[in-house]
Amino acid sequence: MSRAALFDVDGTLADTNHLHVTAWWEALRQAGHSVPMHAIHRAVGLPGEDLLDHLLGEGRDRTEDDRLSAAHDTLYATFFDRLPALDSASELLRVLARKGWTVLLVTSAKDNELRALRRAIDADDAISDTATADDVEEGKPAPEPVEQALELARVAPERAVFVGDTVWDKKAATAAGVTCVGLLCGGIPRHDLEEAGAAAVYRDPVDLLQRLDESPFSSVPA
User: Fold this and answer.
1) Structural contact between residues 70 and 3, judged by C-beta atoms closer than 8 angstroms
2) CB-based contacts of 26: which residues, under 8 Å, 6+ apart?
3) Which among 32, 34, 159, 192 would be 20 to 30 A from 218, CA to CA?
4) Within a 13 Å sphere around the CA of 171, how many CA atoms are in the beta-carbon half?
5) For residue 173, how many other CB atoms are within 10 A of its CB?
6) Residues 6+ positions from 129 with CB-CB distance below 8 Å
7) What is the C-alpha separation between 220 and 166, in angstroms, rounded?
8) How far apart are CA 55 and CA 74, in angstroms?
């Protein structure tokens, strides 16, 4: 029977969350918004419009959304040629693929950004498909991106495990009925991940890889 290993990308497989924080902080600053970096960090992982809702409120002037998002994208793109993969990220994906898991990415990253991230991770041979926020009406924390990944993998929720670093990942996976694993390398505290629904929490891809046989992945029979 098929099994699906679903992975967030930013902060989970690539050490990029704080680059997003910097890019959003500068984009917002240029537009006259003073938003603390810790608040931006907590919002990373949301699609752009939802992130701005979270940071500026739903009653904001939405006519500047496109300009803010474009500024973020331009600033973040300056890092494309040096995005850092997290240690053992590619090995983790390849080990799961060798064990018979269908590996999919579930991300809010846009096309150019996703291509840069995939180059950094360098594990395309292990990745079967990608579900992005552009494929659905609502991105994380809504369950639609996870449900889209399940459809692509043709597996039931109980045959999948989702790995991510934010509370938005946990909420999306839980709402879709998928067991979720948290990683601390994105900078979100263990308590927050567990409270949002993580069945287990690991330090980073290295830690998860070393403990794979005792992780929630071991609970899904081949």
Assistant:
1) no
2) 71, 75
3) 192
4) 10
5) 33
6) 104, 105, 149, 152, 153
7) 23
8) 20
Q: Are 183 and 65 in contact (CB under 8 A)?
A: no
Q: Does the structure show a pLDDT above 90 at 106?
A: yes
**Per-residue pLDDT, 147:** 97
Rounded Cα distance, 79 and 168, in Å: 24
Q: How far is CA 123 from the centre of its chain?
A: 16
pLDDT band at 110 (very low <50, low <70, confident <90, very high): confident
Q: Supply the angle between the helices 65-77 and 48-56 in degrees, to the nearest 10.
A: 110
**Residue 211, Cβ neighbours under 10 Å: how many?**
14
Q: Note whether 93 and 101 are within 8 A (CB).
A: no
How far apart are alpha carbons 133 and 139 in whole angstroms?
5
Write the burial class of residue 59 (CB in 10 Å: 0-12 exposed, 13-18 middle, 19+ buried): exposed
- CA–CA gap between residue 201 and residue 135 (Å, rounded): 28
Structure tokens at 108: 């809010």
